[in-house]
Amino acid sequence: MNIINDFLPYLHLCPFVFVFLTGACILILRMIYGNQLAMVSYAITLAVGFILSIISLLFDQNIEKDYIYGESLLNPGSFDKCILFIMLFVTILITMSSYKYLEKKKIKAPEFYSLLSWATLGAMLMVASKNLLIIFLGVEVLSISLYVLTSITDYDAKSSEAGFKYLIMGGLMSAVLLYGVSFTYGFTGTFQLDTVKHILVQEQYNIYGIKIGLIFLLTGLLFKSSVFPFHFWLPDVYQGAPMVITSYLSTVSKTAAMSAVYKLLITFMTLKDVWLWPFVFMIIFTMVLGSCMAFVQKDVKRMLAYSSMVNGGYMLTGILSYVMNVQNIDQSTMLIFIAIYNLGSVGLYNVLSTLVKEKSEDLPYEQLHHLKQFSKLGWFTMVIVMFSFIGIPPLGGFVGKFLILSDAIDSSLMPLVIAMIISSAISTIYYLKVVGHISAENQSATISNKVRSEKTVGYYFVNVVSISAIVIAPFVLKYFLNITGK
Amino acid sequence: MDQCIDNQHIYIMLGLIIVMPFLGSIIQAFYGKSLQVVFGETYGRWLSGSLAFGFVGTSFLLACNMFANYYMFSKTDPLSVRLTYFHWINLEQLSIPFEFLLDPLSIVMTLLITGVGSFIHLFSTGYMSKDKDYSRFFTYLNLFIGFMLILVLSNNLLVMFVGWEGVGLCSYLLIGFWYQDLNNCRAANKAFIVNRVGDFGLLMGILWIGYLLFQQYGAKEIPGFGLVEALDPRWFSYDIIFGLIGEVVHKYPEIITPIALLLFIGAVGKSAQFPLYIWLPDAMAGPTPVSALIHAATMVTAGIFLMNRMHIIYELSPVASSVVALTGAFTAIWAALIALKQTDIKKVLAFSTVSQLGYMFIACGVGAYWVGIFHVLTHAFFKALLFLGAGSVIYAMSHEQDMRKYGNLWKYLPVTSSTMIIASLAISGFPLLSGFWSKEAILHSAFSSTFPSHILGLETSQWVGWTGLIVAVLTAIYMTRMTVLTFGIPFTNGEERWKTANYDSDHHDVEPYDREESVHISKSEEKYYYSSNIFSAASVDDHQHHLNKNHIPQESPLSMTLPLIVLAFLSLFGGYILHQNHTLESLLSQSSGPVYISKELLHNHHATLDVLLYLSLAASFIGISGGVYKYYKGMPKKETKQDHLWPSLDLWMKHQFYFDDAMQTVFGKMLSRISFGFYKIFDQFFINGILRLIVSMTGYVGDGMQIFQNGYLSSYIFLMVLGFSIMVFFMSIMLIFGGNL
Amino acid sequence: MIPLSHYLILSSVLFFIGLLGVLTKRNPVIMFMCIEMMLNAVNLSFVAFTRYKPWESLGFSMIPIEQDNGQIFVLFIMTVAAAEVAVGLGLVMAIFRKKQIVTTDDQTLTSLKG
User: Of A282, B161, B162, B343, which shows the fewest CB atoms inside 10 Å?
Assistant: First the structure.
């Protein structure tokens, strides 16, 4: 009993510890067994570890307050837990869809999966903590893992280039972020965002130092969430990275960044005179220019990069409407949008990852032809996901967009509403372009289906999960609202 | 309402009556072809036809049973019961149940529809027996019966509208039944589109009524008292409307006339009255049983039924009533004049139908609503008979429809000719036949009516009465013309006429203006009937349907002659049975009798009107003898040449006074020009232009932004720092102005 | 005693010199060095803030504030910077091995665009 009692205070760290240990385990397995293990076994290890993490996430509700050590560092609330759950689940899906792809690309699975675990750990830290130190650590763990993962195909020059660009810009921006942290710390004496908020509210605190800190902090995090003037890394990195990592970047990484931005905005709500309108304009540019850029792309991956930028704009609209009107708006809007966007993206990249060639990550539209012959399920997934992104009513994407729009109207953010509608309208064009190309049957049959990797159990599973999530989302909505609502 | 009636029984009976045709339709649609596959061509068709006939026949027998139980031998007042089956639309302030009303009017219409319908089904099993799409035909026909029953039985304007649109749909499908022919498709489209005009008016009227009642009696916010709920928000149900409309009209007397006129527009469309009648002659492109059932006996009488159902509204509006009467009278004489000069046997009957429908509207317009239904019934008997007889003739004459090629068919088709002669005598108003009674009743009610219907100081009822008399003469003439030409004159030049007609020149003996019009339907029907008939080569050879010199007409099979005989019996005695002892009048008095106008006022018997009987008898005899005198030698030469007494009038009558052409020109050409202009200006220029502009702007913006996305890391960093600086700049402005920008 | 503002000014000057270096230089190694300089500027400000505790003189009425030690952050920053540079140099080596040249505006490093 004593042993259990000794462990009780640390139980709430279980999800993080499991994820960390998963990465370590994969490397240890590699050391013990060398090259004898199949790639699947590493993927399974990761999945098992993450499932343990999810389970422990669900089961640590009942710990008494006294037993929690380091409460100020890692203390996810119910909203954060939902985000964590989504991220872990999505990572499992990405893992399941990836092992054949890794074989095709000749990427070494142990390194890949352990880095993927640790990147997820960083993302989890970003989400679960309200401490600037931990958030910073999370950003760095996530980013550094992603620098490596982006450039992991060493024969592909584009992959290296993407990683290099990401690294330089990311390094620069983490310096900017840190500068903000230092100022915030210097003028409040704490890393704890709750305390900072408290001070700002209670003391009517209004000196320049904290505002400078806010500007730098915001810049650093907006870089991670690829908002307009700081989005330049995004298309290059998305295009150059292996498809699986693109998928990860547009789902887990983006979600983590959004969560951090959300916490930052909540904290600095009292200073909204300073940041609100510049921020609104940045979101507008993100959505509208992102759509325009996506419209002119010739490469599917690059188009999807801009599309993920636009979707990030939608998420920020939802976050901003919540932050502006905390009393009347439910957090579940954000959760629903994020969940549906993540699951849709995973399904989408899952199909696309079977279509890329062995040596090149480029994916021009023509390479999508004959998808229906290759995989009916994949075709269906793509169509459903695209329709969901467009916002065709019965599908989940519509529900998410609709909720965000109605929240934004409730918070009287009309410029954002208009920009969102415009960008949605434009986005219809390029999403439908994809639908057209995947449905094209009698175009030049230069791309044979032999190039495409074989379909695995994971492929089918991810597709089915993605489709069902998008299709049944409107129906589980009420349940969602009940468990997270006020 | 009689409470002792077993409600459960009525529920099931009425439900079965309505469901039966739908069931038949579904079975035909899904299993019709399989029947032919399983049981072979002949037996499968036989089974399929019997099933179709069986379902409608069952419906008819159930309706008869119901009628006998609750109306014929009932000592109490006629039953009027409202049956709610399920909720269709159920809102807080509006409830539209799927409810039916069983009262004398609806049961009479039900008997008519299912009775005539089942005979025509029986006829069709013979007439269509060689058609490729045998079960498709019965699918539509059964569906039509189902929708028609919904139309007449509903207790709710919107449910009625469902039936109204449903029969419109079936009519469309059946007119275009031989869809390979473009002309048939055109005719079907024309019927559908022209009916839309009427339906628009009807829907407006319905919604206006509902809105009016809702506005007056719906839930209201009374200050200091809260929301007062309406007691029964079924704003479209007949019982609610009739209960409340009098009160509303008392408050706003001016509102009833537009509503009545809007409803009348619907009736005009469906019942083929003057401006909108143009679809009915073209609708003859469908198979002949369809013309008999839908375009003569049942569907086109939906307008009369609507008048009867909503008669309270018309009673309240003298202006609308006189518009109804005048429209009816004008249509009657207009169509009768046109019918006088048609050479296509089905066209004669089509215009005759339009004319007779005008008669019915005369009755409704002068306030004798039940008389309208009376004429609907008798007209259904003899007009269905005429159409079926014409079908039989066409069947025997290898699908030739030009009357000028008939003649002496009495010799070959004894049953058909005798029954058809009975029918044409009936429609001509020959004494004691059914047409005589109903026509007499109409004229009588028109002359005796003191229904306050006058418009522009004109005593409407007298005028329409005299018009009716003239039309009676014309009717007798053209019906006699048709009969004599078809059955009577044995020979020209000692040969039967189809033997002497010039076939090589392929209708070139017809006047140029005739060629396009009267021939194209018969020709096209002929042509595509056989192109759709892809049975064995032998069967095609048997039906080498180009009428040739050696053709010998043969009497139709029993399945076709039996309905003729039954209908002939009804044409002979139906009118007398219904008229005797005021049977129909007393039955319908409950549902169609006047409510707001006293009966005495409505039927003020003038002593002078005793002459009327002699007048109408004279009209009938003059017409018949005139027709016989003029046509007993066959088609006078004069009629095919232009040296007529009034050549232009002759020409105009032949050409339907060019009204159809004018409508074609106005709506078909000019309107489409205007539409095309709008399409060019709005759709192409504005809408497309805006879209193109947006798309190209998007493209330009995207291309412009690609300049910045140039792949150079240093440029990216510079742009980010620049963006950061601009952001800081704006934030400083925010700081300075305190966010009140 | 040297006032806090001196340290802050020095730190910001260092930070912007680093930023200018990243903006102007084309050699990745020098760019890493500039980023290092920016991080060190941050370190300097952290250390100064922790030493001077400027928030105490602002007179918050809210007691107690949970005070963190900013100097811990410096250790983390140094670690992270080292990791970043390790990854970065690895990448630079990889690129150099393939292309024999590493300049950020080189043809090989601007293929992703549009």
Answer: B162
